[in-house]
## 1
Amino acid sequence: DCVSQIVDKALNGYNGTVMAYGQTGAGKTFTITGSTENFQERGMIPRALSHLFQSISTMIESSVTVRVSYMEIYNEILTDLSLLRTRNLKLLPYPRTTE
C-alpha cells in the first residue's frame, strides 16, 4: 500500500524512491523482490510496477515515460541489478551547492 502512494505521486510529477536498509539477512531482498513462486508473496517492486502500469492504462489522454533503476549498494560497491552484466559503478560525492 505504501508503494502505491509513491507511484501515485510519481505519476503527478514527483520523483519516487523505494529503498530497503538493514542488516545482512534481515529480509531486504525478499521485501523488495518477493517470491517468484507465489503471486501473493510478490515484493514491493512487482507490486509498484503493477500499480504503475494499471494507473497508466487509465490515463488515455496522457503520454507517460517510465524510467526504473534497480540498484544495490553493498560494501560501498554500487551495482545496477537491472543490467544483464553486472558492473561496479562508481559512487561520486555530491557537490555542495550554496544559494
## 2
Amino acid sequence: IGKRTSESLCFFLIEVGKVEKTLEVLRQVLCEHSNFEPYAAFRRIDRRRHGLLHTDDIYTFLRENKLRHTTEDCEQLIRRYDLDKDDHLSFSEFLRIVLPLANKELRTETSRRKNYDIAVDEYLETDIETALARLLHREIIEEGRVEELRRTLCARPDYDLMGLFYLVDERRMGAIDFEVLKRFFAQHQMTMQVDDLVAILRRLDRNEDGSVDPIEFLYAVNPIDEEFQYKIFGEEESIIRRARRTEDPSDVRYMDYLDRTRVERGDRTVGRTTATGTPRKKGKGKKLAKAIGELLLVFKMIIRLEKELELVKEDLALQPDFNLIDAFRMIDVKNRGFVQPSAIQRELGRLGLSPSKEQVYLLVKRFNAVGDGRLLFVEFAEMIAPVSEEYYKKLTGRKARAVDFAGCAWDDIFEVGTLDSLRKAFCTHIENETAIEALRVRLAELKSLDLTAIFEQ
C-alpha cells in the first residue's frame, strides 16, 4: 500500500467520522422530543404491517414528507443497517438508526418510553414526523457521499482490502479499536480528538462490540456498486451479492421488545396489534448463495494470510544455520517429545515476544491434530516448515547440533539474522490465527449461515 493510498484511507475515515457526528446530532434532536417513541415510529413507516421495513416503506414515508429519493437510495439505507442481510429492517435494526449512541442517558430514557400504536392512516406529531424524515433523508445523503469516497479509494491502483485493514491494524491483532485507530493517525502526523476517533469507530462497528473486525471494515470501505464489486471480488461474488431473499411477513423481535419494556414498567395496557403468524419459507437457493458469498470472502482473506505466512517461512528456511530439531529442543527443555502452550509462551518471551495465553492456545489448536493441547515434533515441524517442497527439502536436510541444550540461550544456537526470521515467523503465525479467529466469530454470528447446507451443496 503506497503513501497516497494510505493518506486516502485517512481522509476517508475522517469523513466517515464527520458523517457519524452529523447523524448523531439528528438522532438526539429526534429523541429529545418527549413524545417520540421508537415503536410508534416503526409502525408509522410500516404501513403494510409486515413487522419489517422494506425499501418501498422507506421510499413512501419520505415521499409523504416531500423528500424525493430513488428506491436505490432507500435500498442503500437498508443495506447499511441490515445486519442479517435479509434485505429489510427488523425493529432491532431500526433502533440502530434512531437511538443516539453518544448520549447513553437519552438513549435509555427513549427506550423506556411508554409504547403506543399508530393506525395505518395516522401520522406522528408534526415535529416528530419532520425530525424522523430529516434523519432518514440525511442518512441517505451522507451514505451516498461516503459511497463516492469508497469509489475514489477503490480506484487507487494499489487498492487492497486486507492490505488497508492491516495498514491500520499494523500489529495484526485482528481488530481495530480506539488505541489502534489513534496510533494509525499518529503515524500520519495527525492528532485526532477523542470524540472524532469514537465517532469513526461507531460508524464502522456494526455489531457494537467496541472494535472493528475485517468483515466490518470491508462493509465500511468496499463500494456497494456492482462495477467495483466485480473489480475486487470477481464475477461470481458480484452475482452472489445481487441475490435477494423473499420477504418475511413479520418479525417477532419488536413484539418481544414490547413485552420486555411492558414487564419493566409493569404496564399491561398495550397489546400486540399485528399477527406474528408463521413466516413464509425464504428462497433457499438465494439464501444459500448469500451464505456462500460470505464464506468465499472469508476464504479469500484466509488465503491471503496464508500466502504471507508462507513467504515468512521460506525466508526462515533459507537461513543456513536453522533446523527444526534444534528449534524444537530449545522449547522442549525436558526432552519429553512434545511442547505445551506454557512452554511455547515461555520461550517466545525469551525471544522478546509477548503473546497472550489465548493467542498461544489458538496457535497450538491450529496444528494439534489429536486435540490433546500439545504439539509433537511432527506438528511443530508442520507449523514452521514451508509448504513448498523445494524449501522443505532444504530445511529438513540439515542435521541437528550435537550439544546439550540445557541452559542454552537462543543466540547460543542461532545467528542474529536467523532469530529475527524466527521471531517474524512466530509473530505472523500468532497475528494470522488471531485474525482468523475474529473471522470465525463473525461467521458464527450470522444466523443465515448453514454450514451443513453449504457443505452438502
## 3
Amino acid sequence: DCIGINKAVVSTQSTGETSMFLKGASVLSNKAGKTALTDQMTQKFANYIVSNKDKAGQSNLFYTLVGLDALSSSTLVPTHLVVLDNSAVISENQRSLKVALVNPLGEAVRDSTAKIVSAKGTEGQAIFTPGPMAGGDGSFEVSASELARGVFSAELGFELPSGYLAPDDSTIKVKCVLPVELKNPTFKLIDVDDSRVVVSSDLSGGAAQGKADLSTRLIFDFSLADADGDVTLHQVFVRFTNVQTNQNVYFIAQADLKKKYTVDLNFRSAAAKSFGSVGGEYKVDLIVGDATLPQAMIVDVASLVLEIPDSKEGATAVSKQAKPEITHMFRQPEKRPPQIISMVFTGLVLLPAVILLGVWAKLGANISNFQFSLGAVGFHGGLLAIIAIYINFFLGVNMFTTVKCLSGVVIITFLCGQRLLSSVAAAKKAK
C-alpha cells in the first residue's frame, strides 16, 4: 500500500532519533514512490540536522551523516545556499559574488539555474543588476555593476530539477567595503593667552612638529571622503602615545552636519584629567575604523612635546608636611555709643508712657469702676499676657514659640473682651 504522511507532528529528543526517523521516511518514500513528508517538514528536519552537526561525540557524527544521507537520497531533497571564497564582501579588488547550491551532504545540485531578484541597500542603491547569474550545475557567480558603501540584501531565485526544494533562506547579506582618504586636514596649536597660532600645518609635508603647555589649545579639522564624496564613519578618534611610557590617550573626533570632523583640545583642562599630568614627547595619530572599510586607516598627524608640570611629586611632598595651624578670627564687636546718648534714647522711649499717664490723670481716669468679673479679669489679663509675650520675643524667644503662645492667649482675650463689652453695654442700658 502507498502510505503518505500529509500532516504529522514528530517529537524527537536527539539527533539519533531524528536521523533514524528520516532514514525510515526516505526508504518508505522510495518504496511507495510518494513523499512521506511535506515540504515544510522536510525543510525543518534538514535545518535541525544541520544546526546540530557540530555537537561533540562520535555517535552524534554518525547519526548526523545518517540523517544527511537520508535527506539527500529522499524523493524530496532540501537544498542549502553556500557563499564561496568569502565573496559576500565586495571591494574594488573583488567585485564578484560566488555561491553554490548544495544538498544536505554538500553535493552540488546539477541542472539548476540562479538569478538575482534584487540587491538593494538601506538607501535604495543597488550593486547587482537583476537578472541571471553566470555558471551552472550548482555553482553561480555575478559581478557587481557598481560599488556603493554599505550592507546590501541580495535576494536570489532558483530553478531546480524535479525533486528538489528551494533553499529555506535565499537572501544573502553582501557588504561593500571601500577605502577613504583624508581630506583638507588642518592641524593647529594656539596660544590661548594671546590667541596666537603657534603651529599650523595641512600635513602635506608629513606629520606636524610642535610644543604644547597648559596655555595651548589643539584644533585638528579634517574630512573623510571616498569616490562619492564626504562620508561619516563609526569609529574616528585621535590617539596620543607617550614615546617613553607607551601610554595611550584617546579623543573622539566629532562630525558636524557638513561631515567635517573636529578635535578641539584644551591642555589646561585635559592635562590632569586625560594625560594624568604626564608630560613628554607624544605621537599623535588619526585612527579610522568602520565595517565598510577594507581595513583600519592610521594617519601620522603630529609629534608633540607636551610640557606639563609634574604635580604628583609636589602633591606627595606637601602631603607629608605639617599643615599650618588654622586660627579663627571672630568679628570684632562694633563700638558702642556714649552712655549719655543711651540714657537720652531710653528716656525718649519711656516718654510716651509718661505722657499717657499724665493724660489719664488729667481726664480723671481711675479704677474705681473696675468690675471684678471673669470677663474683665480675663480681658485685661490677656492684654498683659500679650505684652509679656512680645517682651519675651524681643529678648530672645523665636518666632515659632511666640506665635504658638499668642494663638491661645489671643482666643481667650477675644472671648473675655466680648463678654466684658456685653456686660458694660447691659449695665448702661439698665441705667
## 4
Amino acid sequence: SRWIALDHWTFSLNFSGSTPSVQQLLQEKQVLLKFGGIDTFATVTLNGQKILEANNFHRHWAVAVKDLLVPGNNQLIISIRPAMQERLQLQEQYPYTVPSLHQFGQMGVYNFMRKPASGGQMYKLTNGSSLFASHIKAFT
C-alpha cells in the first residue's frame, strides 16, 4: 500500500454566486475566506486565480476574495503537494547541513516545514478537508 503523504491531493468545491447567502456577503465591505489545518504545502485557487500559497500546517489563513466572486458558478480548489518532496527540495536549496533527529517511519528534517510531527498526519488531511468544508458553508 502507498503512504497517503506521498500523493498529491485536490479538494474542490463548486458553488453558485447567485444564492442569497453569497449575495448578502457581497454587500459587505470585505469578504474573507478562512483556512486552518492545511497539511502542509498547498496552492489555493478561486475561479482560476491563485489566492494562497500555504506552507505551514499550524497557521490559519484569511484571504480577501470579494473581487473574485462571480454571480454564476464559482470554483474553489485546494491542491496539496506531498510534504516529503517539498521538504527535500527546501533542504537541497539550503546552503548548510542542518542536524535533525530521524526516527524510523518519520520524515525527519522538520526544520524545513511546519507540520505535525506525529504519525497521525493522514488524519490531518481528513480534518483539514472538514475544516475547509466548514468555512465554505456560508456560500451554500
